[in-house]
Design brief:
Blueprint lengths: L2 H12 L11 E4 L10 E4 L4 H9 L4 E4 L17 H11 L3 E4 L2 H5 L4 H6 L20 E7 L2 H8 L4 E5 L8 E7 L3 H10 L3 E8 L2 E7 L6
Parallel strand pairs: 2-3, 3-4, 5-9
Antiparallel strand pairs: 1-4, 5-7, 6-7, 8-9
Length: about 220
């Protein structure tokens, strides 16, 4: 399965937007595309011995509950901190790393709920409630072409240049309220783009648009 698909499934299940602000969750190490996940190793902590086991098992995705990359790395070398060596080894051997941590803790029926399950509780509530966006937003992402500029300037949306993981070339992202999504999608269809897939991220719905085969 393509890494992008695996990450979408993990993001849906592990809800990384619920992670605490100090945490570092989600896809932490990503080899260059194309990248198909064939074997996953699950561990509580990614250490050098665990990575050695992953190499022996020919694993190419490590699901580590605790993030092995937590503090910002100032350099990535093999003769310094062991966590830097982990990143180097993973990239050299094309191994992706994903960490759910506090996102998986905080979700409904997640780790926190599981830890409380043996107790006969009268009530429970989060210490820090997660704020939700007042208005659901939709982000449409499509490859940059000659028609992309026209598409952007003819609709009052926020536009940002980006590179979508696993896709070649630059992409353009259009963000609008979900209430206006039908209008924006219709305009995209009129210009030859077609909806390929959708994904929910936090309170944002992401719609990827596929460039027409004729390139127009």
């Amino acid at each position: 399965m393509d890494l992008r698909q695996v990450v979408r499934i993990l993001n849906h299940f592990c809800v990384p937007h619920l992670a605490d602000t100090w945490d570092n969750v989600g896809l932490l190490v990503q080899p260059s595309a194309p990248f198909a996940v064939s074997r996953i190793l699950v561990t509580n902590d990614l250490t050098e011995p665990v990575l050695s086991e992953a190499l022996k098992l020919e694993t190419n995705l490590i699901l580590s509950y605790h993030p092995p990359v937590f503090s910002p790395l100032k350099r990535i070398t093999t003769d310094c901190h062991w966590k830097e060596r982990l990143v180097v080894t993973c990239l050299e051997n094309r191994i992706a790393v994903y960490s759910p941590h506090t996102g998986l803790d905080a979700k409904v029926n997640g780790v926190n709920d599981w830890l409380l399950s043996p107790f006969d509780l009268v009530s429970k509530k989060p210490i820090t409630p997660i704020p939700y966006a007042k208005e659901s937003m939709t982000r449409l992402t499509f490859p940059f072409t000659d028609s992309a500029g026209q598409f952007c300037i003819t609709h009052p949306s926020s536009v940002s240049a980006a590179r979508l993981p696993g896709r070649d070339g630059s992409t353009v992202s259009i963000t609008c309220s979900t209430a206006n999504m039908t209008t924006v999608m219709k305009q995209a269809m009129d210009m030859g783009f077609s909806a390929m897939e959708t994904e929910t991220v936090q309170a944002v719905i992401v719609v990827y648009l596929l460039i027409p085969e004729d390139g127009q």
